[in-house]
Amino acid sequence: TLIDKVLGREDTRSLTMNEPHPHSWLDAGAQGVIGQPLDRIEGPLKVSGKATYAAEYPAQRLSYGVLVRAPFGSGTIRDVHADAARALPGVIDVVTDYPSFIRNPQQGGEQKAPTQGVQKVDYHGEIVAIVVAETFEAARDAALRVKVDYEPRDGAYVFAAHRDQAERPAPDQIPPHLAKGDVDAAMADAAFTIDATYTTPSQNSAAMEPHASIAEWRDGTLILHGSYQMVASDQMQLAAALGVGKDQVRIISRYVGGGFGSKLGIAPESVAAAIAAKRLQRPVKVAMARQQVFDATVRRSNTEQRIRLAADATGRLTGLAHETLASNLPGEDFFEPAGIGTQFAYAADNRLIDHKLVRLNWLLAGSMRAPGEAVGMLALEAAMDELAYAVGIDPIELRRRNEPAKDPQNDIPFSTRLLIPCLDRGAELFGWSDRKPQPATDRRGEWWHGVGVAAAVRSNMLQKSSATVELTTDGRAIVSTDMTDIGTGTYTILAQIAAETLGLPLDRVSVHLGDGAAPPSAGSGGSWGAGSSGSSVYLACEGLREKLAKAMGVDVEAMTLKDGRAIAENRAVEIAELVGDGLSVTGSIAPGKQEKLHRQASYGAHFAEVKVNAVTGEVRVERMLGVFAAGRILNAKTARSQCLGGMTFGIGAALSEELVHDPRNGKVVNRDLAEYHVPVNADIPQIEVEFLDERDVHANPIHAKGIGELGISGAGAAIANAIYHATGVRVRDYPITCDKLL
Ligand code: MOS
Question: Residue 95: which domain range?
């Protein structure tokens, strides 16, 4: 049609964030849908069982794989004896040449070439073979009959025994070492000092949906239904693991029952399913048991963090050091970056941030929700609380006195920073002024009561991300991207962005996610998902707006899009009449100079009230409040849910979550939800969440920043600080269990 010729049916629109981007169609808000607390659009599918998760896809001639794991911590395999397993009825095959390097590559990038069969085992439970059978039960039975013959090697199984051999990891995107001035001198000259060491244990993401994959090869291409957070990079990892081209792997992750980092990189079950499916020329499903998720995917590293604070007589910091020991397997580069938030949290002229790794034969360590801040703020914010008591000033006032005008590490401006307004607003809502300054003064019967506060900081990141938005002839919009919704609300916010920018009612927008055949996105990780994928959808819609204005013959600035109609110059035209045979624009966002010119982060303040039983040491969280500033809030309900989830994680980190490693072989001892204690409903009090109004024009064109990992940052510290206020007992070894308080 003529319109198609004038407009160009398919187009692209790209933006690299080199400049601030103050203009946003979302601010016009004609449709009035952005920011609204809308229910998740896929919610009814989930609660009615109609949303198909990875393990639930039907397949012809489906077979079942069960992973065989090393029953020792460190050693060299001599042989895998599988004859007894193969002889069982229903067993199809036992694959013993599972490639040895696949642990759960967390950071993307290139993989080493596959090797044939596992020779060297580095941790208890590492995958060494896969049994495939006609039924799950037969496969599970057979897996127990596979015998692994091995030569044991010495392993490092106890953190304390090897901590002195810690070494600094190689420089990465997150620098392991930053230094400015002289902290030792600042400590020597200070009016007040804190020098305290905090420890946090290994933790598990404990996503509700265990890892599962169904693999099927069709004409040389692998179709893998899996439960993953970052489809595009996971496809590359899987292709490298299998030794095939990256366009020979298509991952589909339409619904993901939580990830929290454990599904950032591929886990062993996807590789196992893919290898077995190729060998057998039929589809293979591998669904991990909960125990396997705990001991054969990935953990958050334990940490030992030494914080030193040097302050003048008024509490102003002159020196700040945050030195972290974390652990990982030999040869693994990932380190828990506990000092990452400390880079910019507070002013201090003399600064030191350092990370070292202790090499242990424990399960792989990788990213878990807010890698760095989640445990780093458990230390830094407790230390700040200790300093407030030492100086004798209110902990909020201490933070006010240490508010930096500029990023103290890199001497660049903050894009936005509403930390103090979050603390002030929180204090007002929480009734902070009622707090008695002295600890252990409020006892009611058996219970000591106390309140605590902590700051939240979380770096904001933008990642390359693409999405296609199509306007159909009947005036509907279809959003397609390989972006995932891991329970965060991505389906809904992308629909809201498209509906708002295109002036469509929400029910005229469909969102298709999680298919590796669609334009590659940033995926869900590092709290960059909404800002990055949302920007790509926004840019596509911005391109479509221009096409609609052109079709109408008006200036794009003079046109309002609302309720499916384009309105300009006293004319109102149905959008459907302007799209010809349909229009499609692919939007792409990429990070640019803005992230180097401004320190970008989101901020918040946590307030907690606890009671501690004087007889048993039991801690009950009575109430919590979080006030956050994270740029534009795209959906008030899903954003609030993210923060509720993060704060709940914080309660677990403070009070109950701890992976225990057997000192004889590193094995994860408590590897299910009965033994690894995540908070349950009865542990969670009334939690209030409020967002401050904010836009960040340096972050991206939708002015939104990350939320998912902000809610956990500092949450546990507020509880630890409340426990100290209640009891006068400072426990620096998380989790703060009853025994440590008595
Ligand atoms: Mo997050 S730990 O980057 O899923």
Answer: 57-154+208-258+263-296
